Amino acid sequence: MIKLLALDLDGTLLNSQKKVSEGNKKALERAKEKGVKIVITTGRPLMSIEHLLSELNLVDSDEYSITFNGGLVQKNTGEILTKDSLSVDELKEIHDVTSSLNLPLSIVSDDTVYQVDGYTDYQKINPILKYVELPIDQLPKDRIYNKAICCKEVDFLDEKIKELPANLLEKFEAFKSRDIILEFMPKGVVKSTGLNKLIDILGIDQSEVMAIGDEENDLSMIDWAGYGMAMANAVPVVKERANHVIPLTNDEDGIAWAIENYILK
Fold it and tell me: Under the GO molecular function aspect, what terms does this record hold (predicted)?
């Protein structure tokens, strides 16, 4: 029996217009009525998904989200239950490598993005956040740094990823959350990390979790969950590793299909 449904956003719950379809909304409501916890599991901060949580009636002290790719486990009212972060020294270590590869780095701290190499296209993708340009050696010491991001055109980014040194990949989690975004997280902090902490809090077994995603940063939770599901539009490696590939895309109410066939039946 599925008791918790973990959902990625872009390419999964959201369609190409970055909206939740009416079909998906109705299916999620029916799953909630059955007692299933709906947990948004995303790389974004809570601030940038508050409008979605409100739209889905998930703003409550008994509703939860996994944000920053597992770095924070939060109640949807904002209360932080667990957190993992990067130190300024670690960020400088990442920046030494990315700057040598001509990859501009953006550093996310809660609702603020520090653009240490100047403006990047990440600002177009997440316009709700606050953006500050400053050198990396001027990062405030009293902030919690959730993740670091490189946002570049896909072909250039893919070539540069091949040049990332092994020692950096051993020390940090590095993965693509979208075709144009490379993210760095503390080692061992991935979406399944946050979900594992949350089920301990809720008293839910790993086998009772369904996780659905489409990108590389969803792999950990798809591998970990009792029911690991890939969207029809998922990247090949996600489809290969999932227990099941949903026959519909994010533009075809794929989430509603999964709920109807695995939760409501």
Answer: magnesium ion binding; phosphatase activity
